[in-house]
Amino acid sequence: MAAPIVVAGAGPVGLLLAGELRLGGADVVVVDRLTEPTGESRASTLHARTMELFDQRGLLAPLGVPPNDPAGHFGGIRMSLAGLPSPYPGQWKVPQTRTEALLAEWARGLGADLRRGHELTGLTDHGDHVEVELATPDGPARLRAAYLAGCDGERSTVARLAGFAFSGERADKEMLRADVAGIDIPDRRFERFPAGLAVAGRRPGGVTRVMVHEFGRPVGNRAGEPEFAEVAQVWRRVTGEDIGGGTPLWVNAFDNTSRQAARYRLGRVFLAGDAAHAQMPVGGQALNLGLQDAVNLGWKLAAAVAGWAPAGLLDSYHAERHEVGARVLANIRAQALVLLGGGEVEPVRGVFAELLQYEAVRARLGAAVSGLDVRYDVGPGVHPLLGARIPPEATRPGSASLLRPARGVLLDLTAGRWADAAGPWADRVDTVSAEPVPEGPLAGTEAVLVRPDGHVGWVAGDGTGVESALRRWFGAEGSG
């Protein structure tokens, strides 16, 4: 039996990666030191691009229809997301507990081996495999892995043990956050007071989430999470309200740390999600960035295990996602400056508020926040969709249902002219006849090659020929 791919971390990113790997035919073992999920829903927003990815994998039906907020923000300044070019504009409010449960059930259903109470304590990359050391309920254990993916969060054990280098900026501002039962305070959306910033939102079951930042308050060296008494004290100083009589369900602090791994790959070890990049969780971008890392990495690792990955495919994970991560971190740093600054940033906030009245500005920033602006360098060509996600409604049938198996798709838009072009890659690429939507982005296009992650890898008549593109993304003919 071939060695499995080991994924460290059973949060949303690790679970989505596990499912992607299983769709690609790779055996996968997910290890997590916790015996049960935390039950905390720190991240609760899914953006448009993530909803599209969930649709591609058939996950929206079991998810149901979550509440949608068409109003996002940039640095706490209201910004409509209703006009985004996606079937899923806005911010979809899904508790992290629900996302984790959904992805765990999906990954297990596909055959992923999820081992809770298994803590990764050591690793050695031997060049042709990775040896993983674990602390388990039955004592120390070793596991031979084809590859290891660290999806174990900001304090990643995998990153530390493998020797990944990071660069970035230290935190100088902090927000306190808690879910509190038994309090009755007004809902607030980034309300600014003379002493600080406060957010409050009532959630189902009578629980209120509060977040508070006190202007000028230094960031301490925390050994653990703050006490609820500290949150209540800061909340009183900023808002004048007393929430100390409430019952905290969980409490944490987050700051404006911004750091990124210099490389997302070292040999047979990869990082994804917060293990690869740490950022302030503004507007849910951190979770969504990590989930999109997983979809980019999964099919490439599975291809390597299956034996058909062309040269450079695994390295393209770093090349593509590191650039995206750097842009998102810059976006978040800009938002943190506008959001957490005191009176000195009010002129800047005024300029942003004025600019956000323009549709072009809202569209540009909304696409960045929602992950719809990602475009990879996939080779020669100038077609506007080359390297970008294929719009779900650009063809009939729509692309989402065609991508369910996480295979490549050659869309023949000529009713048969390209039917045999991908024949030698039929074990990895499906050829589907489709009709472009009139006056849509593919009108007048004969054929499009779509990667398993939904990004366009080739467009007919633009750049290289189809055989060259198929070899670049799906290896040599018959190698599968």
Polypeptide structure, described:
The chain is an alpha+beta fold. It folds into 3 domains: 5-66 and 87-167 and 259-370, 3-Layer(bba) Sandwich (FAD/NAD(P)-binding domain); 174-255, 2-Layer Sandwich (Alpha-Beta Plaits); 395-474, 3-Layer(aba) Sandwich (Glutaredoxin). The protein has helices at 12-23, 48-56, 60-63, 96-109, 157-162, 228-239, 285-306, 313-340, 346-355, 359-370, 399-402, 466-474, and strands at 5-8, 28-32, 45-46, 68-69, 71-74, 77-80, 91-93, 113-116, 119-125, 130-136, 139-145, 147-150, 166-169, 174-181, 188-193, 196-203, 207-214, 247-255, 258-261, 265-266, 269-271, 277-278, 395-396, 408-412, 429-433, 435-436, 447-450, 456-459. Strands 8-2-1-12-21-20 form a 6-stranded mixed β-sheet. A 5-stranded antiparallel β-sheet has the order 15-16-17-14-18, covered by helices on one side. Helix 1 runs parallel beside helix 7 (285-306). It is globular and about 70 Å long. Residues 4-330 form the FAD-binding domain. It comes from Amycolatopsis australiensis. This is Oxygenase.
- Radius of gyration from the alpha-carbon trace, in angstroms: 23 Å
Largest sheet at a glance? Answer: 6 strands, mixed
Mean pLDDT: 94
Can you identify the CATH class of the largest domain?
Alpha Beta
Count the E strands: 28
